[in-house]
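RECORD TYPE: inverse folding
INPUT: structure tokens
STRUCTURE:
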């Protein structure tokens, strides 16, 4: 086991939390599983982001837990949505951006040939993991337009969820302190009740800091629930 997680007290729930319990109860009639960026560049050793996130992805068992969540959500008949991340050639003409934006463009993360073409898409870093495709490409899953930086402000996720009568969101996917946290913040601001699956996400660990620890801290302050994958699967089976 990695020393990062198990030797750091802040990875574990606080023994005397200051925040009151929210009382969020999952209602399958109005809930959706939203998986962010379940893509090769994040979740496999072949992905360009693996050197930053691979340790945390492996430690949390993210790949397997996401598959279990997809299956449980489909079995429960709730809405499932994907909020993907794609960059097209025009996006590489941006004149400014933060450090991670610059890095993503430099390493070709989530690159696609065109918004109107799937040329060279299959098995590329922007593609979904093969084991997820039966759940994602079943004709029922919402595949939102791509978010462009971190949050869903730039895509149609909120619209798609509202059009399906969703008011509760279970968030999972990548990366915890970036797109997951940004989706959490925006969806909360949009009036959704949101829980995060804390062990079905991961984040970069870099000299700049431990992104997973940063995300956990903010999840506890912001989310309606901070649940484990096993807890969510149990709720979906009820």
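DESIGNED SEQUENCE:
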């Amino acid at each position: 086991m990695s020393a990062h997680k198990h030797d750091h007290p802040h990875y574990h729930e606080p023994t005397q939390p200051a925040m009151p319990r929210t009382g969020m109860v999952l209602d399958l009639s109005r809930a959706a599983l939203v998986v962010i960026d379940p893509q090769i560049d994040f979740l496999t050793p072949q992905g360009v982001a693996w050197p930053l996130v691979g340790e945390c992805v492996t430690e949390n068992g993210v790949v397997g837990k996401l598959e279990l969540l997809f299956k449980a959500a489909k079995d429960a008949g709730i809405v499932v949505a994907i909020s993907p991340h794609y960059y097209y050639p025009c996006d590489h003409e941006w004149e400014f951006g933060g450090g991670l934006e610059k890095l993503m463009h430099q390493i070709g993360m989530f690159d696609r040939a065109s918004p109107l073409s799937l040329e060279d898409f299959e098995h590329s870093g922007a593609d979904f993991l093969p084991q997820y495709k039966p759940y994602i490409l079943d004709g029922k899953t919402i595949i939102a337009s791509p978010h462009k930086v971190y949050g869903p402000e730039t895509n149609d996720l909120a619209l798609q969820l509202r059009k399906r009568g969703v008011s509760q969101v279970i968030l999972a996917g990548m990366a915890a302190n970036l797109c997951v946290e940004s989706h959490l913040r925006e969806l909360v601001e949009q009036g959704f009740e949101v829980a995060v699956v804390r062990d079905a996400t991961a984040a970069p660990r870099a000299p700049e800091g431990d992104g997973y620890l940063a995300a956990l801290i903010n999840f506890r302050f912001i989310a309606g629930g901070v649940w484990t994958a096993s807890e969510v699967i149990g709720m979906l089976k009820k």
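NOTES: The domain at 31-236 is CATH 3.40.50.850 (Rossmann fold).
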